[in-house]
Amino acid sequence: MRRLGDDREIADATIEQFLADAPERLKEMRVLLEAGDLGGLHFKGHSLKGLAGAVSAPHLQELAEQLEKSAPDLTIAADLVGRLQQEYALLEPRLRGALAA
Q: Mind giving me the DSSP string for 21-78?
């Protein structure tokens, strides 16, 4: 909230948008991974990095940045996509809780 100037309405809208967009990015990453599309994965990593930054989710943001900058290695990319999904699974209920507060 501090990042958004303690404006509850803006914070809620930002969280809601993140909760709508992030799962889609993660699904797209799985499809790109299965297709072996590292360029697409790098792009989606960049996109998720921005979303994570907007909700002050530094660990998710760091993982997304690693994917964005990962070398052309599908094994590394697969590991990062899995870790991104795990981190999102931990983050999502906390963000939903913040909306309910």
A: HHHHHHHHHHHHHHHT-HHHHHHHHHHHHHHHHHTT-HHHHHHHHHHHH--S-HHHHH
**Angle ∠(87,73,40) on CA atoms, nearest 5:** 70
For 74, what's the count of Cα atoms within 13 Å in the CB-facing half-sphere? 8
Q: How many CB atoms lie within 10 A of CB 2?
A: 7
The predicted pLDDT at position 1 comes to 46
CA Rg, the chain, in Å? 14
What percentage of the chain reaches a pLDDT higher than 90? 79
The set of residues, in sequence order, having a beta carbon less than 8 Å from that of 6 and lying 6+ positions away, is none
First to last CA, the chain: 12
pLDDT at position 71: 66
Cα–Cα distance for residue pair 68/71, rounded to 1 Å = 9
pLDDT < 50 regions, the chain? 1
